Amino acid sequence: MHRKPVLAANWKLNHTPNDARAFLQRFLAQVPKLNERTLVFFPSALTVGTVIEGLKDRPEIWVGVQNVHGEAQGAFTGENSVLMARDIGARVVLVGHSERRHVFGESDAHTTKKMALVAQARLTPMLCVGETLEEREAGRTGEVVERQLAAGLAGLEDGQVAGIMLAYEPVWAIGTGRTATPADASEIHGVLRRALVSRVGDKAAAGIPILYGGSVNRGNASQLLAAPDVDGLLVGGASLDADSWASIVRA
Ligand code: PGA
What we know:
Layout: E1 6-10, H1 17-30, E2 38-42, H2 48-54, E3 62-65, H3 82-88, E4 92-95, H4 98-102, H5 108-120, E5 124-129, H6 133-137, H7 141-153, H8 158-161, E6 165-168, H9 182-200, H10 202-206, E7 210-213, H11 221-226, E8 232-235, H12 242-249
Parallel strand pairs: 1-2, 1-8, 2-3, 3-4, 4-5, 5-6, 6-7, 7-8
Helix pairs in contact: 1-2, 1-12, 5-7, 7-9
The structure holds 2-phosphoglycolic acid (PGA).
């Protein structure tokens, strides 16, 4: 059961280990222990160890990885595995981020496999779903996110579904400066919540946080977080600057 707001920073391909040290020094000085929220950092795989080390006195802050390979080990040069993520101390894994789907060509079948692997490794998968502008304009948003959600959950037992986190990130809003309105976000979060209820029932579904992501910034974070059924935020650009991210997590 995880209904504290979840505020997650997706650093994408930004911040070297040195940058991360400087970031944490500045960020932690501004952010005391927040009992009412869960914070998560998703640094790049080469920076994740530094962030975990930098947070050793702040165990309430979670660290995750942005991606893992669909197999736990083997001849896959250049990839990172769920076993490595667990061993280094990561707790969460992003699965099906829009850039994985649209830049790197990941399909629903990949997300099915990765979600199952992450759950088996007893890490928390954070499944990302979201429609393109074309799909939205064709009135297909609900259908697209439900399909992506169903694929993400297809390889999980109900008990594992109860332990996931979900992020709704409309593709047209990511990195574009165009944000969904709080009402748009609530509407789609409602669609996702109903799909979760029909899969695992009211009680388990109520414990799954659904985050909104896509051009969240200091100016719109509080309003989005206050919208019904929005249980957290997944933030890219505005999480890169320590002052900006500190002000969002305190919002
Ligand atoms: P953005 O990215 O906040 O820069 O739009 C969000 C994300 O991709 O998770």
